[in-house]
Amino acid sequence: MSDTTPTGTPAWTATILGYPRIGPDRETKKALEALWSGKADLATTEAALAAVRAATVRRLNRLGLPAHDASIPSSFSAYDQVLDAAVAVGAVPERFADLVGEDGRVDLAGYSTIARGRGAQAPLEMTKWFDTNYHYLVPEIGPGTRFRHADDRGVREFAEALADGFLTRPVVVGPVTFLLLAKAADGSPEGFAPISRLDDLLGAYEDLLSAYAAAGAEWVQLDEPGLVSDSATAGVDGLTDLVRAAYDRLGALAGRPRLLVATPYGDAGDHLAALAAVDGLALDLVKGAVPADRSVLAGKTVVGGVVDGHNIWRRDLVRALAALRELEGHAGHVVAGTSTSLLHVPHDVARETALDERLRGWLSFADQKVGEVVLLGRALGDAAAVEAELAASAAALADRLTAPGVVRPQVRERLAALTPDAFGRSDYAVRRAAQDEALDLPALPTTTIGSFPQTTEIRRARAAWSRGELAEAAYEEFLRAEIDRVVQLQEELGLDVLVHGEPERNDMVQYFAEHLDGFAVTQHGWVQSYGSRGVRPPILWGDVTRPAPITVPWSTYTASRTTRPVKGMLTGPVTILAWSFVRDDQPLGDTANQVALALRDEVADLEAAGIGIVQVDEPALRELLPLKTADQAAYLDWSVASFRLATAGAADATQIHTHLCYSEFGEVIEAIDGLDADVTSIEAARSRMEVLTDIAAAGFARGIGPGVYDIHSPRVPSAEEVVGLLRAAVASVPARQVWVNPDCGLKTRGYAETTESLRHLVEAARTVRAELPSAAEPVAAG
């Protein structure tokens, strides 16, 4: 096998498909939010982002990726990689046309506006990126969208690194995936599909590739995860032929860089054969497999994605090396790599000095994963030279299996003793009658999803308490005062069902992880969720138990401050799994049921304390849905069962709510119905109530709260706008089922916009309530 590429540059031995772009101390977040708040100008912000990019490239070089062979990816984004592609090819919605300069560029302020909206102009819709907790912005493509290589930010960033002495590999969302993930722009003819514009889009990609070549790029990575997802490709006839034609055309481009097509998050199957014209393939060998037809690898550089880019456990390097060996003899050149971009994991486990040392030995964050692929690249050349490192990997895996707490017999015994009636409640009609009598709510009841703004004062108090600078009693007094303020605000606004605002919670998953055995939390383990928003996923490493009630004191205190119904707020088992780094040594369904038992006990304690409404949020239900249709039924069986196990112990009069956001509701509507929650709230505002069609078609019979306020944008919806959304809702769904609520929790918003938006929400509910035929008659509570 040659040690050089056809142009004579050294051949890769290892690479990654992408790296975290938020900065180890969230420098990107701080820079962007300073711009958005007016505390920094464009030049200052651009300089801060450039510093993050430069530091990233240098760090990857220090970790073992060479400076001059394009093994370092240029995968930075100031907000989202799909938005980057949209701006690069000129696919900016007409409502934002004024943000595009005469040279085709969109500056960082305009780019942010497309992502976040302005005034009455809604931002691009946001939804989950395949089976991850990352959110991407959905391109809007119509028959008249004019594609061209419009913005050259990515090319300039490549040139910036080259000037600093690093030949990187630009990473761009591939043209097929870009269109598969897009939605038809408003005003498009019925039945129009963005993928029908593929030929037109390819011209822009040809010009983009030519621009990269002119700047000195030797390789460009085109990410095509759409090829592994059955839902992304559903309804597209002849997709393999479309892929072949597209890449034959790009492959024939004169003077182009070499093309590496990556298919992360699963197995591209038959579509791989359509990529004959490209120079390299990056295969996900964690969720996918070595192709049965090895001839598709012939003559190509093949990146074997054997290191999991989506979880934080140390890899079994012996097994990983064996998988790479399977590629040898079939590929032109084999490279050790990650299965996906490392976007989904934190930067560096070495910074987690507060974690148990034994646990740290089991973990691999982004920097450690770079080390793993570099080690595997060396092993491909000489396994004996890294024998000690391979043995250390095996020892860490063996240690995980025997550590105390990984297996707790009492948890296993309780699960084994469960009977079918532990998963079911009374008939809904019986529950509804009991809840109507207990709650006595009006038509179109108003509520929020749970959290209220996490102010600077709240964060400072929590930080001081965490550092031991604020006594427990003083911190609790502060939290009670914050709850009092939130309750008073909700009563003044006229909301019907109140929440306590969750001031004690740093995160809807981390908070529970801190109170459950079997979890650990990090100090610096930030991962990008969307834009400048980061989360710190907990580490679920052992069997789960609940040592004591978690939310009961705060819910009962809230109930003591008002005469209106109060919701207890829990995070569901699937979401706790989805937004944690979960153990990989047992089936996910078993782990979910362990979490569900802990939540079941919490529901029982809330109920015993007099809390008549309990919301168990499952925003990640759709997120974990396998990308292959054949695998989905088994997932939905255990995920629905775990929710029902958590909630089925509740009495008939206790109203169980659940919440889902950015979840492609229609794809899992049968499963959502199977949850058997009394009320389900869902994202609907940013998509302008598109979900109502699915709800109506499914005959959804229980309470439904299609969100009327998009909390992922700073804009305040007018009362008239919310009235329009509610009228659409009651035109599609019986009014007695409809609840009025925001899309999601209000944690990330400020109080000024939150108060005004909720005032409009309540005003709109009263307006539409008065329009109902029997407005004076109370609606069914669920």
Give an account of the 3D structure.
- The structure is a single chain.
- With 782 residues, this protein is an alpha/beta fold.
- Helices cover 39% and strands 12% of the residues.
- The chain has 26 helices and 21 strands.
- The strands form six sheets. A seven-stranded parallel sheet has the order 1-5-7-8-9-10-11.
- Helix 22 (629-647) runs parallel beside helix 23 (669-675) and helix 25 (719-732) packs across helix 26.
- Mean pLDDT is 94; it is low at 5-9 and 775-781.
Write the layout of secondary structure elements.
Layout: H1 27-36, H2 42-62, E1 73-74, H3 81-88, H4 108-116, E2 126-128, E3 135-137, E4 140-141, H5 153-163, E5 169-173, H6 175-180, E6 183-184, H7 198-215, E7 219-223, H8 230-233, H9 239-251, E8 258-263, E9 280-284, E10 301-307, H10 317-327, E11 333-338, H11 357-360, H12 366-381, H13 387-402, H14 409-416, H15 428-439, H16 456-466, H17 472-493, H18 510-513, E12 517-520, E13 527-530, E14 533-535, E15 539-545, H19 552-559, E16 567-571, H20 573-578, E17 581-582, H21 588-608, E18 613-617, H22 629-647, E19 655-660, H23 669-675, E20 679-682, H24 692-698, E21 703-706, H25 719-732, H26 751-771
Parallel strand pairs: 1-5, 4-6, 5-7, 7-8, 8-9, 9-10, 10-11, 15-17, 16-18, 18-19, 19-20, 20-21
Antiparallel strand pairs: 2-3, 12-15, 13-14
Helix pairs in contact: 1-2, 5-7, 7-9, 10-12, 16-17, 21-22, 22-23, 25-26
